[in-house]
Write a structure and sequence with these properties.
This protein has 16 helices and 39 strands. The protein is an alpha+beta fold and 634 residues long. Helix 4 packs antiparallel against helix 5 (107-114) and helix 12 packs antiparallel against helix 13. The termini are far apart.
Length: 634
């Protein structure tokens, strides 16, 4: 077994690796940028090394600095986590050439599966079915459009070197192809340094199914069953679960068997994920499941596999990297229960899901779920990295039990003033189609505003929260204490003749049921100096901070007076308007690149561009006024 390990990553995955390494008695070394000097993964590691400025391209993406840090600290091996350099074959080879152990697949395997076009050709040769499309080398826009026209719309443009939902654009009509191709290539070049793309037939009712595979240096390859990651927003996974709804054992054998063949075709070692797309338009069938790509690393959603199999996949990685065989044979692995994972992001659904930065003044996550996070209360959400702040993972004996437990965990979590997508996650879990397991990647887009979280807490919940505070005088503006009566769980609120709400207190948390159905309520009191308490209340996963003025983290991209401000530091990569232009509500004004993503800022109402303080290529700071829209006749 390894004795020392450097984690070439940050945030929750670095903390996750440290947790297993510590249990195994392995000394850990963290690396950090300027922005992460006080980060949780730095505090938890046995040793930490500074590797550069805040931008990832100057720190976490500089392989030479990471190898130097490993050598200087006497680390025996490097674990790449996911993202950053985890699927960089050149970095993996450099680690090996430096005499260090690479906790990951062989560089040749990364190369073979790293480019989507080459990987698909390889899989087709290995007898693994692949999605119809164009994988050619010719990148001339006219040729690409001709191929898309031949495939028949809708089609999907995908970055050859892509991953994580970046560098992907759906195109529904020929007239939209040129703009989508330009945007896709631009994002691919920024994210991966490679703007080449391939074209695929877009499956109208796609299910995103992936299989966890594991290989070792002794020639063994096993699978740890499938996951369903179909609930997505703009190709980014929102809720993941294992096993996949609607899978029977016959279908499981077909899909998981294909995954094992795919891994063997590249002599795979370590943790990997074979991703498939299934056409669910006529139900799940073995002949309608196609290979999409392979992720040659550990996945963000690996905890759901751990929960249903009882295995620690990071421990498996470390043991295989040490030369041991995979810990379990295929016949020793089984599925126990169901697990779901929700990705809690620092983003504001009310402002088009723009990332939200700032200090986590309030950060309490409910312990009904397993929590994988890289932050604690008082930490700051930086604009330099991915906005995911935690993963909530719930296990249950069956799918419904796992779903209810995850709902409860979201209801009992409180994050403020930084905005999160907690309320959106709650509404997704409560959506009828999701409850029934009838999920495909287009569900969120079809649902529109139905999945948007509450804009404000209900009066019934405000009254109930007030009942838990002894000093009710401070809450007269919110609650009506006359409605409070003793109840079987502690107290009862008669909100109206049709509804009876029972609540119980557990420390600083309050949970409730309305008509014996989970309603999703939680609250926390916070006193600031000598001021009256401020109510931190969560209803249906959405956190509200009442009695507290708006902060920069709570600001949207567009104010009611037409001022369009930058929600975070970033770079303007496209400007769509000029001063004096007439615009309509929802029209794109500019595109800002920040936190590894492109963010479009749009007009809040019909009007004209009265002020323009933006130009393409310019770096802008958080809160900077970029555009001011003046209403017509105003």
């Amino acid at each position: 077994m390894l004795t020392s390990l450097l984690i070439a990553n940050r945030g929750e995955i670095a903390c996750r690796v440290i947790r297993t390494a510590r249990r195994l008695g392995i000394r850990t070394v963290a690396v950090y940028s300027d922005a992460d000097a006080k980060a949780l993964h730095v505090r938890e590691a046995d040793e930490a090394v500074h590797i550069g400025p805040s931008p990832a391209r100057e720190s976490y993406l500089v392989g030479e600095k990471i190898i130097v840090a490993a050598k200087a600290t006497g680390a025996e091996a490097i674990h790449p986590g996911y993202g950053f350099l985890s699927e960089n074959a050149a970095f993996a080879q450099a680690v090996i050439d430096a005499g260090l152990i690479w906790v990951g697949p062989k560089p040749a395997s990364i190369t073979a599966m790293g480019l989507k076009d080459a990987a698909k050709k390889l899989m087709a040769d290995a007898g693994v079915p692949v999605t119809p499309g164009y994988l050619g080398e010719n990148q001339d826009p006219a040729r690409l459009k001709a191929e898309a026209d031949a495939i028949v719309y809708p089609v999907l443009i995908k970055a050859v070197a892509g991953g994580g939902g970046k560098g992907m654009r759906r195109v529904d009509a020929a007239r939209d192809f040129a703009d989508a191709l330009l945007s896709c290539k631009r994002e691919a070049a920024s994210s991966f340094g490679d703007d080449r793309v391939l074209i695929e037939k877009y499956i109208l009712r796609p299910r995103h199914i992936e299989v966890q595979v594991f290989g070792d240096t002794h020639g063994n390859v096993v699978h740890l069953f499938e996951r369903d990651c179909s609930l997505q927003r703009r190709h980014q996974k929102v809720i993941e679960e294992a096993p996949a709804p609607g899978f029977d054992w016959a279908l499981r054998e077909v899909v998981c068997g294909a995954a094992v063949r795919a891994a063997k075709a590249v002599d795979y070692v370590g943790a990997g994920t074979i991703e498939f797309i299934a056409d669910a338009s006529e139900g799940l069938r073995g002949d309608r499941v196609w290979f999409m790509e392979m992720n040659t690393r550990l996945q963000v959603e690996h905890p759901v596999t751990e929960e249903i199999t009882g295995q620690d996949l990071v421990e498996w990685q470390l043991r295989v990297a040490s030369g041991e065989p995979v810990p379990k044979r295929q016949e020793e692995l089984s599925i126990d229960g169901w697990a779901m994972e929700a990705r809690l992001y620092a983003e504001d659904p009310a402002s088009g899901f723009l990332p939200s930065t700032g200090t986590l003044e309030q950060f309490l996550l409910d312990d009904r779920a397993r929590i994988d996070t890289g932050v604690e209360q008082g930490d700051r959400i930086s604009p330099f990295y991915d906005p995911m702040i935690a993963k909530l993972i719930a296990w249950g004996h069956d799918r419904e039990a796992a779903r209810e437990r995850l709902l409860g965990a979201l209801a009992g979590s409180h994050v403020a003033p930084v905005k999160t997508n907690g309320g959106f996650l709650y509404e997704c879990l409560e959506a009828e189609a999701f409850r029934m397991g009838d999920v495909d990647t287009g569900l969120i887009a079809r649902s529109g505003d139905e999945l948007m979280p509450l804009a404000e807490p209900s009066q019934a919940v405000l009254d109930a929260a007030a009942a838990g505070e002894k000093d009710r005088k401070a809450l007269r503006e919110w609650a009506d204490p006359d409605l409070i009566q003793p109840g079987p769980w502690g107290f009862r609120l008669n909100a109206d003749p049709q509804t009876v709400v029972d609540f119980s207190l557990n420390g600083c948390r309050l949970s409730g049921r309305i008509d014996r159905a989970i309603e999703g309520v939680g609250y926390h009191w916070q006193r600031v100096g000598g001021d009256i308490p401020h109510l931190i209340l969560t209803e249906r996963g959405q956190t509200f901070r009442l009695g507290y003025g708006p902060s920069r983290a709570e600001g949207g991209a567009a104010a009611g007076d037409g001022a369009i401000v930058s929600p975070m530091p970033g770079k303007i990569i496209a400007l769509e308007v000029a001063a004096g232009n007439v615009v309509t509500k929802g029209q794109k004004l500019l595109t800002l690149e920040a936190m590894k993503m492109e963010h479009s800022l749009a007009a809040p109402f019909d009007g004209k561009v009265a002020e323009l303080n933006a130009e393409a290529g310019a770096q802008v700071s958080e809160g900077a006024l970029l555009v001011r829209i003046e209403k017509e006749g105003g």
